[in-house]
Amino acid sequence: MTLRVGLVQTRTPATHEAALAHVAPLVREAAEKGARFILTPEGVNVLQKDRAKLLPTLVSLDDDPVVLGLRNLARELGVWIDVGSALVKREDGKAANRQAVIDPSGAIVATYDKLHMFDVNLPTGETARESSTYEPGDRAVVVETPLGVFGLTICYDMRFPALHRALALGGAQILTVPAAFTRPTGEAHWDILLRARAIETGSFVLAAAQGGLHEDGRGTWGRSIVVGPWGEVIGKLDHDAPGVLIADIELGAVDRARAAIPALKNARAFTGP
C-alpha cells in the first residue's frame, strides 16, 4: 500500500487566531497535492515562550480554536490531520503538550501527551524548563487507521529510543515526530536522530517542524523530513520557511526492513552493569 503524506512546516505566531490563519492554507495545499494524512508541527496552535503570557490563553483541546479549525478542515477536505501538538489546558487545570489525530469526519480518534520534558542547559547558554509549564504524559500511544498504524511522539521524545521501540512492538509502522527543535540542537542532531529511530525500529518517520524566528523571539530549525525504514531520506525541506513537504511511502517497506534486520525480535534481556 502506498500512502501520500503531507508534512506542514510552520512558523506559528503567538496568538491562536493568527496561528489558525497561518496553518490553514498550508493544510489546504497539502490536501490539494493529494496528501491523505497531514501532519503539523509541535505547538501549532500557539507559540509563546513567556509563561505568564501563555498560560492564561490556553483552553481545553475540545475548545481550542486552532484544533476546532483543523477538525473542520479534516471534515471539509476528507483527510486525516494529525495535530502534531497543541498547547492546551488539561482537565485538572494544568497545561499539556498534546498531539491529536483527527479522522476525515472531524472526530478526534486519539491523543498523546508528550512524555519527555525538554529540561536542558545547552552549550550555547540557552536553557529550557518545559516541566515548569507542562505536565508530562504517562503512556505511549499507537493509533490504528485504514491508512496504517501510527506511533505518536513529540519533539524531545526522539532522544529516547525505548519509546520508539515500544511503539514499533505495539504495531506502529509510521512514527510521527512533530517538533519545534532549537536551532543549535537541530543543526547538530535533527537528521541523525530521526534516521536512527527509523533504522532501529524499521519504521517510517514523519517529522514536521516549526522553522525560523518567531514572534516570541525563539528560533526553530525547520528542515521537515520523511525517513524510510532503511534510514533513507525520502523527502526533506532544505529551509526553515513555512511550506509543505509531500512524500509517497510504501508500507510494505516496513515488513521488508524488519525481515532483513529483525532487531525488534533479536533484542535480549540482560543484567548489569
Kindly list the characteristics that best describe this protein.
six-stranded mixed beta sheet, Nitrilase/N-carbamoyl-D-aminoacid amidohydrolase, 7 helices, single chain, 29% strand, 273 residues, alpha/beta
What does this structure look like?
This protein is an alpha/beta fold and 273 residues long. The chain has one domain (2-261): Carbon-nitrogen hydrolase (Nitrilase/N-carbamoyl-D-aminoacid amidohydrolase). It has helices at residues 16-32, 51-54, 65-77, 161-169, 183-201, 252-260, 263-266, and strands at 2-9, 37-39, 80-89, 95-102, 108-113, 119-121, 127-129, 142-145, 148-152, 174-176, 204-207, 211-213, 219-221, 225-227, 233-236, 243-250. The strands form four sheets. It has a six-stranded mixed sheet. Helix 1 packs parallel to helix 3. The longest helix has 19 residues, at 183-201. The protein is globular, with a radius of gyration of 17 Å. The N and C termini lie far apart (44 Å).
Shape category: globular
SSE class: alpha/beta
So what's the CATH class?
A: Alpha Beta
Task: Give the distance, in angstroms, between the N- and C-terminal Cα atoms.
Answer: 44 Å
Tally the helices.
7
Q: How much β-strand is present in the residues?
A: 25-35%
Q: What's the main sheet like?
A: 6 strands, mixed
Domains counted in the coordinates: how many? 1
* Mean model confidence by pLDDT: 96
Annotated CATH homologous superfamily = Carbon-nitrogen hydrolase
